[in-house]
Amino acid sequence: MNSELLKAAAADNPWMAIAPEMALACLALILLVAEIFLPKSKHSLVPAISVAGQLGILCGLLINWKSIGVGQPIFNGMLMAGPHTQFLRTFFVASSLLVSLLGIVALAKQKMPKVEFFVIVLVVSAAMMLLSQANHFVLLFVALETVTVGFYILVSYVRTNPLTLEAGLKYLITGALSSGILLFGIVLLYGVAGNPTLEGSSATSMNFDSLYGFLQANPDNFLASLGIVFVLSGVAFKIGAVPFQIWIPDVYQGAPTPVTAFLAVSSKAAGFAILLILVGVFAPYAGLVATVISLMAVATIIFGNLAALTQHNVKRLIGLSGVSHAGYLLLGVLAAMTVPVAASAIYFYLFAYLLASFAVFGVMTHVAGVDDADQELDHYAGLAKSNPFLGGVLAIGLGSLAGIPPLAGFMGKLLVFMTVFAAATAPISPLTSGCYYGLLGVAVVGVVISIYYYFGWIKAAYFDTWRAPLLEGETDPTPARTPVAPWMRLTLGLLALGSILLGLYQGPVATWLRLR
Amino acid sequence: MNLPFDPLLVSIVAPLLAAGMLSLGLPAKLGKAVAAIGFLLPALLALHCWFYFPTDLGADYTYLTGYDTGLSYFGINLMLGLNGISMPLFLMAGIVGLASGLYAIQSKAERLPLYLGLLLVMQAGLMGVFASVDVFFFYFFHELALIPTFIMVGIWGGRDRGYAAMKMTIYLTIGAMLSLLGLIALYFKSGADNFTIIELHRVIAENGLRESIQSNIFALLLFGFGILVSLWPFHTWAPLGYSEAPSSAAMLHSGVLKKFGLYGLIQIALPLLPEGFSNWVCLFAGLAVFGNLIVIGLVTIAQSDLKKMVAYSSVMHMGYAFLGLACYSAVGIGGVIMMMVAHGLSVALLFLLSTSIHHRTKTFEMSDMGGLVKYTPVLAAFFVIATFASIGLPGLANFWGELAIFVAAWDFSPTLTVVSVSGVVISAIYGLRAAAKVFFGPESEAFAKVVAENKPADLCICEKIPALILIIALFAIGLWPKTISGPVTNAAEVLYATAPSAAVDTAQLSR
Predict the structure, then answer these.
(1) A405–chain B Cβ distance below 8 A for any pair
(2) ipTM of the modeled complex
């Protein structure tokens, strides 16, 4: 490619269309510069700058809440905004803002460099925003790797803790493996779609539109099927769907709590955003995709709930319960293949999940001691009595995760399940309506099981249990709880209030998501 | 008379607001006053709705208003209204709520503001259940009322509270989930545009549903609602939960919330799925009569713990309700509604009084009591009234419901009717025996010890008021049943005008 062509290509790149992503990246650079120029004693200002900057970006996004340029490929077909792009951007910025806030509380307990954390969170979030608009496999892979590499660092951030290092290593190995699988799938698809002897082949088969055209012209190509399964598997790693959930418990436990929250919320949302795009691209192979997704969904729901049932470490518990949430969302993806509004239901679910998860993670950050990986259910004993505020936020967050009305989580589950019901009237062969009803049955069993462990957590915080008196010379194993700063109180209060209000009145969010 | 606001919405929002204010941490006295208003308003508004209820309504709704909460794409709107079937239950929810609220306010529970707050949330849910025309919100409000129960059992419950709370949670969640699936399936299969009962009735009357679909959905609803109403053999959560629950929560749950399942069957499942009903009726009528009435009746006789006995008796009485449903006639359904209202009042009164007894005897064990009448004549009189009501003696509300159910059941199956009338004898045995053991006869040694330490005083005024509210309601309905039976009959005659097309094979049962 000569420079003239490059210039011509660059000339029609609408940079304003990715202004929010660039703003986040610039904010990350500002933080780095601030670290250099601020005296060491003033380094505590860096997180404040980050939070203020993200609040500004969030406000900007909320003012321009309507997605623009929907369905128009930009940057030579690399990116394409969907109807929910602006919502997802807001979602990711809100999530990174909350992660930064949790980071301020959690990192204060560690003797670790404080600035890099906030920088990486911003960069990763920007990459997720791009990922959710990907229209080309190259961009998809680059954005996904930016996210993953960022997480390699974040997961093993507290490098003095052996469990954290173990988590980092596990995430590195499984992450690399999943990237490999994804890449293999991409290459297969690229190769077969670029084969000039086949009908509908294209030289630009990395592009989703070209690929779609090819798949439509060759509805049962073996290599393409293989590639599709590999690509779906690679994405399944990111959302933690069975059989690719193996990394979740250890990584969730070992990672610092804010990073666990980041993995649980943003990473999962990004995974589902890309899955929804890919499901559209792979539409000519709907039968295959639907089979793979429904099998994964069943296994994910059952495994996640059963595995979470026996956990005593709350980080493992929330990790494995997150696996089951991925399972419910996979049902939504299945529905989204025939019922377009299911995508909106999924995003509503994810938004409710964001509110509830950060409420719970916020409480976890305050209950945890210096050893971040050691967070047992027993540490919550008497929380509701000694700190009714944290107890209340925890109960609302967990209730919403469990899907108890009138909280937002219930509405999310309800909408997803209802779209599956609607999809069951026109099933994708080889699935039948009965399969859809069977999937719903499994999901309901999963929800009932999940009540047990979420309720067990609430029970630990609320109900008095007898505890053996300490022997002489024995120290109380429960770590001291961090006092809640006023700004954190405001944040957690807003999250809990949001979970309640969104359960009772969905008006503005429903409008935004085109649910009405 | 027209109020300047929607009485139904206010009766739901007022308790919620009061709960919200309590959560801000008001001073104790002010908090109690706010809570009292939160309980009083729904009761007054319910009385208002009852007083001005039109007499010639049929099964239509009045006080109908709709609010868009943002899910209209899915056909979900908050639509409130009352018809002849829901109005008496709405009224009962208001009255029992007021009584249990007042009883809670005077109690010396630990963390009282939290306790009152949860009760208020429950009260809001209960008013919402019976005021909802939208099927989704009908379910939603039920859950809103259910969740506080679990927490209250877990925090303020008796010795086995952890186990009881967990068991209740899991059983009731399964029941709720099954019924939710059934309701959603009904909505999608009917092809209705929105989730209101009115629309479902209209669409199904026009298009009808295949028999196999009806049968499957009815099974989901029957067992889902059945678990919630403690249909034998899915009842085991109820005696445990109620005996462990703090008194006000037990009053509200067993008195009002448990009627949700029956109400759902009467208002939604039976009229919309008549063929599904006729496929399942023999099974559930049998379960109800032999399981709930006879087996649980005998189990109730065997109880030595006063509160457990009341709890079991409440499970047993659900057998009459299911029998009435099985008749599928205006008389039978009308009888069930009357019985639900009366049972709600009487069981709440029994739970209230047994807790008051516990405060005086320091035990629920009936063999450790005796001779309490000497110290507490008023309490004894109230308890005997409550027992009579629960047995179904004429002059008290329960009589009319049970009578109508038996009359209707004779057409359905004489055998089952004869068997179930023996239930009245069973409830007379345990009821009167309990009254005799607790109040009359010689003082037991254990009770003598309690008396020596702390001489029991009679009911104080703040315990009398809630009890009197319930007793007055029981007598009012017992002596003047037309107050509620008029609208009930009107509605039931429209909804249950025709017997299910596939004739119920009762010949088998009557042999």
Answers:
(1) yes
(2) 0.79
